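Tutorial handout. Part one gives the primary structure; part two gives the three-dimensional structure as tokens.
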Amino acid sequence: MTNETSIDLTSDDYFMGEALRLARMAYDTDEVPVGAVIVRELKIIARAHNQVELLKDATAHAEILAITQAAHVLGDWRLEGCTLFVTKEPCPMCAGALMLARLKRLVFGVRDDRAGGAGSVFPITSAKGLNHVVEVAAGVKEAEARDLLQSFFRARRRSG
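Part two.
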């Protein structure tokens, strides 16, 4: 009997691991460490991390950049059948974009109890009266996502 560990390349954990890798890239460039990947038919079709500071653009959140990239890849603004994996619960702007792009599913790591748009504060992804509802799974690799965010903001407070 061997004691090999295998990686399930179709699991939420695997894809969230890819989003965390991108969040670390954001951290290394002094951006709030949020990473996102969009998956369709078990293939990553878009990857992004926050670039607000780099682009001097308040809308350059990982989710928005990934949605734009995925739409370009698919040649359609409708991202039906796609899942967004993001390390932190989307803000209201990003949650609205998920709805408009018609993503099937959202998987995120850590909740945002101050401004979360996927149920923690604002229930945008499940709002009645909208023409689309996004399935939401929360808490995937939550500890890792939280640790990365807390480390970033601790370092920021120390540097003044």
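Part three, for discussion. The chain has a mean pLDDT of 94. Strands lie at 35-40, 43-49, 82-88, 105-110, 135-138.
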